Amino acid sequence: MRQKPISGLPYFLGVDRLDAVASPEDRVCVLNILGGESRTVTPVSHAFSGGNVVFGTSPGRSGQVLKTPAGGIPVFNTVLEGIRAGHDFNTGVVYLPPSGVRDGVAELIRVNPELKKIVIITEKIAVHDAREIRAMAQANGIDIIGGNCLGVADSWNKVRIGGALGGDHPEESLVKGSVAVFSNSGGFTTTIAQYLTTAGWGTTTLISSGKDVYIQYAARDFALAFAKDDRSKAGVLYVEPGGYYEKDIDWQKPVVACVVGRWKAKLTRAVGHAGAMAGSGDSAEDKELWFMEAFDVDGIYTSETPHVSAKGALVTNIADIPAALTAVMALNDIQPDFAPRGSLSLKPWIANDQGLQLPPDLAQPVVTAPAPYDAQIAALSDQIGAVIARQSMKDTSGASQMDPKTQVTSVHGHRVLDLALQPLEAMFALPLVHELADAHDRAMLDVAVAAEVNLIGDPILLAADAARDAGNSPNTVMSVAAAITGPKRVERALACARALIALFAQSGLRDGRDESFDLSKIEVDDQTRALFLATPDEADDPRPEAMLAAIEARGGKSVFLRFLLGFGERLSRDAILAAITTTIAWGPLARKRISRLTAETLPWYMRLYGVMVGATIPGRHHQPGSLWGIPREERFSRWTMADICCLAMTGKKPDPTEALYVQILIGLLISNGPGSITAQGAKGAVSADGPQTPDRVQINKAMAGFLTHSGYSHGGNGFEGMAFLLDQFRDKGLKDPTDPNHGLDLTGMARDFALAYKRDKATAKELGTEVRALPGVHHPIFKGKPENFDPRERFIAQFMEERGEYNIFHHFYRELVRQLYDVGASRYVFCVNVDAIIAALLLAVLWKDYQAGRMTDANLETAAFTIFLFGRMIGAAAEIDDHLNRGRNMDTRTPASGCKHVV
């Protein structure tokens, strides 16, 4: 047993002066020197300290050497083997795994009578092991620092022992001065030293105490050594909750204490590094009071409330430490060690406000970064658009997600419930620009899509009519149109978009609508210029002029269109389409919300939107200059996407209420998450083409993938819901489905159906057959709940209630699920799902047309299917674009191990 003076404390403390914590005389042995962390950190410490590590241990690697800038460090199997080889040391550093720390400490103590201190880097040491380590060290007169620490350092002596204080270049952070630092956090020990230099304060000794339950070299030990250190005029402490280490200490010199971790009081278990759990009386708030009492201050120091005394100050943010220390030392007539070396004000090297108008105190100006970062940032700034890492996208999406708690899907961060209240154009733009389009861009999108809907003279129309006449479902008809809208049909439009983006990429343009932008600096060669001009074959196409007139009528502004019009020659429809899409995409592109690939492919999506909507209109209604009798000029200049979609489904321009409900339905139907069949169909088509070679991916084929993965169960259930409602109400004499005084006994109607359904279930069970499915009525969405609901149906109900509106078909569905439960036909209350809402809302909108014979049962059923396709077309575009940017080749396939054979 080795006993030494205990410096007046009730336990052994050998290192009772700060200059002895890390001195030039110290010689170090490192346990597990070839471990992952030590192999990186020890060479830096060894070189910075002038070569203070004499040897290390790594069982089974005796004879190896750890190379360092200051020469090689020999490695032995055991500590005793190193000592017998003639290597003396007084300090041990432990990098062993938690389970081996106790035995490593025991080995150091047992074989080396000259041992004075041990620094334990390892975290998560068992509490009972920490107790035994403490007992062994106390019994043998040895100081322990750690565990879970980053070691110790001395800026005067240029010595570092243990971990990575000062980082890879400790000479930059460990600057000689007059402030001692004691910190529960290793990383913040370095940060505090760096922060102090900005205010002109250097450091003496820095101790990373760690923050396990046992802090072996604690604040009271530091206070004693600090008081004896003539170099140290002030101290800085970084303190976390847990333990009474800092309570009732007489600091004797000025101190700034930073106490953090109020949030830990809300936790119920320990949280790793920040270790000892705040218990009763040792929370962050409690420790703040200890320091305020010790410093005779009545509050926390901030720039707004500078509570200080000559004894010290309390802060709760490390950024406040330099200013607080300077204020405290001024009261002691002590000036900083050297001139300030910078400031802690925000100095952003890169800024992207995503187009938000930030208040002045948040909109920080960008400063030039030091080399070599300045050149790297300049290169990044030259690159336009986001760069998205590729990854496996099986059952994954970067575009849509479903909240498992609410069962509500979001697309690019916007819930479908919120999207349903947005103008339809904003929904169509969202998948491709990742933000909601404003009124200007919505108007531009209206023109772009309207120019594609009338398919007169186009083979697509013949093919769509042929598919319709063959009895195909609406999704199949639409997929024929998508299939024909292939790469060749958009080749020039895509080339125009690429050319415009290339011409303006380095121009500094931030807003594609900036009318003050100087176009004189944009130079274009003859070949590129010719790309945008109409050819003789297009002389009879009236759409370019009609598009330009419509843009002017709607107040459209476009730098790119202004640039093209400056040529003074007739532009092609492709060029105008590309100018529109580049205008819409430019802001998100410049803000790096979207990739350049997305912006360059935008014309393809716009053409597909128009063609797919147009294909739903029978060929006889496509006429030169008019669509279903509506003149081109009117549609181009004044109609919205909701008007066009409603026209496609019903053959008429809707009134404002009708247009609103079409918009809402499409919004609710955009996506049901990345796991839906339609999303998988779209993503699988991109995956099969190979998104790692984007120019091979056929976006129209991916749209066809979504369409072929729609059907009467997934998509067409609104079709069946419409048929179901027509059966229930056909002969009931209903005049106005929006009048709550309709005179029908909905409860009785629902009960009669429920009883019949219950009988059908019993019969089917006896015969071993399946009972008919109920369209629009589904099993639980929220499993285990006695009453289920579709959040989209609840949204519609609340929306109508707030507007004072009524829908008899919706009301009937709600009565039906209740009666099914009441008569015992179901074990819980089924939900009225979105398919029922499609049928109910559409039928109410079109009831008068149906009663007047302007619409047939087949027309209504097709409309219900088609509105689903319009909504899901938007969601499919989001998945296609996301997978095109993010996916890898064939990354949606299921491995053989995940497949099974059904016998």
Automatic annotation (TrEMBL):
GO terms for cellular component: succinate-CoA ligase complex (ADP-forming). Residues 50-123 form the CoA-binding domain. Pfam families: CoA_binding (PF02629), Succ_CoA_lig (PF13607). The keyword Membrane applies. Residues 176-282 form the Succinyl-CoA synthetase-like flavodoxin domain. The chain crosses the membrane at residues 827-847. Keywords: Membrane, Transmembrane, Transmembrane helix, Tricarboxylic acid cycle. This is CoA-binding protein. It comes from Paracoccus pantotrophus (Thiosphaera pantotropha). The lineage of its organism: Bacteria, Pseudomonadati, Pseudomonadota, Alphaproteobacteria, Rhodobacterales.
